[in-house]
User: Fold this.
Amino acid sequence: MEIDKELKEKITSAKKVAVLTGAGVSAESGVPTFRGADGLWKSFRAEELATPEAFRRDPKLIWEWYDWRRSLIAPLSPNAGHFAIAEMEKRFDDFLLITQNVDGLHEKAGSRKLLELHGNIWKTRCVDEHTVRENRQTPLKELPPLCGCGAILRPHIVWFGESLEPAVIQKAIKTSQECDLFIVAGTSALVQPAASLAGMAKEAGAFVIEVNIEKTPISSIVDVSYRGKSGEILPQLVV
Ligand code: OAD
Assistant:
């Protein structure tokens, strides 16, 4: 991949930068994606595991699945793509990382200006009090885990059929529409509303760069689409 002078200039002259990431950015760390050949949704049915109805039906089963994913993610480390994004945050005063990932690897890599659109697998939420707490116990001692108030805790994750927190999605939209450089990496761009953010940024005048090993539905609308691994390409965008 060649970063030409013009692109370098686009990056270095940017004042407001937004980055949107998806599961592909964590793939090189060993976290399974959702829709790839070995993706989670190839072996598991999303509607049986990632919906509020499924949780109401069998909270223990849902927690067993999350407990398995937490155990899988716990020992993993961020990769060069995560570190490149953390470095970008230091280079631009006005920067926001918008992630669909729930694995916590961006934070582990040092990212602090971070908006987690779909929640975080290391947080629980009380179904009655709605209190969100960090919980890093792996494996969990009781399934389902309980809140101090006695109610069941759920994973602090946005499931299919649920809305994103209004303040969170509003901030993501506003940032996408106000930035002058938007980098979208490792997402299939199939899940809304995250999938629309790159298009919103482009329409509002941002220069949009995509990084993905495959072509996606947004590849044709972006300014530059790099076909390759985020762990290899993102570090080259830190110019
Ligand atoms: P997907 O699994 O749908 O897509 C992963 C994307 O990453 C694909 O487009 C791959 O081509 C690409 N990819 C894989 N390895 C890569 C690599 N090393 N470098 C660059 N790209 C790579 O994951 P998401 O788009 O994140 O929801 O999925 C969106 C949401 O759907 C997730 O947040 C999740 C899921 O259901 C929740 O957890 C709520």
